[in-house]
Amino acid sequence: MKSGMLVSMVCAVALVNNACADEKGQDNLDDQASLARIVKTERDDGRLFAALDKLHDQAMLADIAKNGRGWQTRQGAIRKLDADKHKALLEAIVDNVKEDTSVRFEAFGKLNPDMEYSIVVGDLDAPQPQPVTFAASPKPTEEDIFKRKMRDALPYSKDGVTERGRFRTLGQLTKMCDSVAVGKVASVKSEKISPEENVTFVLDVDTVLFGDIPLSGKISITGYWIYDNIKRMDQQAHPAIRYKWNLRECPKPGDRALVFLTSEPGLGYDYGNNERSFHYRKGESAKRGSYHIARLDSGIRYLDAQDNTTNYLNAVSGYLRELRGEKRDAESYYALLRDLVQSPIQSIREDARSDLMYFIESAPSFDPKRILSDGHIDAAIKYWVEHTVIPNRENQKEK
């Protein structure tokens, strides 16, 4: 058993060091001709695509795109072609009705990189195979453009960010935290504590808003900072960069901070019980005597100015009153949110807009039509209520 594992490890190392080289050194990943030969003949997918990844000779890629073995290999070659230099080849692939549809579609996309397109297929029940044609999507109407603008204006609406942003709002943090405190950061240490935590800092607590925390004492808090390197995110055009104003950098000694804490590390999502719901209540948590920043790096707000401090403390006090009290009152919670959506602090304002949407969706006693005439609510949420929430409510009544 151990001998077999050793052989496998040696083979793996050889594959990494020598790539696709054979014993005679005829094939290697430094020679374009050898790479092309591997792509055409290799039957091991790992070796084949490793070679294709390093192949950049345009003439060889064109030959593989035209005559390569297997549609995946040809697709891969087409992706790397210079569309201007090989326009005639790409057009010939698109026009050949006998071609594999996937290969034709790849060639069409290469020729039309900025076009939104769809595949239109003939009658599948016809006795003879029907030609496959590619049709550009119709030009968006003014109504289509307006709908997109309304959708993009909703809180945390960017693709790839929606859940991350909306599960980390003040309202969601309030519902799932075990304690909330305010204090000054005394010290910070970067260390690998666990897969879920990489920073420890000491907070000198001066205010406890919720939970069992020793007042006027120092507590050690752990967390995980994902977005500490903002510059790297800019370079990678990460979707979350749209909300850079809402990213929480790693704390520094001297920072005054408002923290949402949990007794256990991690994200702590409670999908099964629908934590988005207005009526959601967190169950009892194990008391471990340790403090963790809620949702990795999201449960912290820096109180760096007097107006900033006042607005955050008022907002969080309101959320705690409405969501961690003995009873939930829809009217009272709505009154809080309609004020917070006009907060001068962008993070508070956007969090409240998202929390308002969750509230409207999950509070059946609340009439969503009231939103349409509320001067505190913005046009994007009104549009969403009018065209999504109200029709859904009406459909549910009919069932």
Commentary on this structure:
This protein is an alpha+beta fold and 399 residues long. The chain has two domains: 2-136, no CATH class; 162-398, OB fold (Dihydrolipoamide Acetyltransferase, E2P), CATH 2.40.50.120. The chain has helices at 2-18, 32-41, 45-54, 58-67, 71-80, 87-95, 101-111, 142-152, 162-166, 170-176, 230-236, 306-323, 330-340, 346-362, 379-398, and strands at 117-120, 133-136, 179-194, 197-210, 218-223, 256-262, 291-293, 300-302. Strands 3-4-5-7-6 form a five-stranded mixed beta barrel. Strands 1-2 form a two-stranded antiparallel ribbon. The radius of gyration is 29 Å and the shape is extended. It starts with a helix and ends with a helix.
Any key phrases for this structure?
399 residues, alpha+beta, OB fold (Dihydrolipoamide Acetyltransferase, E2P), 2 domains, extended
Name the helix and strand elements from N-terminus to C-terminus, one letter apiece.
HHHHHHHEEHHHEEEHEEEHHHH
What is the average of the pLDDT values?
78
Order of neighbouring strands in the sheet with most strands: 3-4-5-7-6
Can you count the helices? 15
Main pleated-sheet profile: 5 strands, mixed, barrel
CATH topology type of the largest domain? OB fold (Dihydrolipoamide Acetyltransferase, E2P)
Structural class: alpha+beta
CATH architecture term of the largest domain:
Beta Barrel
Overall 3D shape: extended
Using only CA atoms, what is the Rg?
29 Å
Terminal Cα separation, in Å? 62 Å
The level of helicity is: 40-55%
- Provide the number of structural domains: 2
CATH class annotation of the largest domain: Mainly Beta
Enumerate the spans where pLDDT stays under 50 for 5 or more consecutive residues: 1-27, 116-126, 227-242
How many strand units? Answer: 8
Tell me the fraction of residues in β-strands, as a range: 5-15%
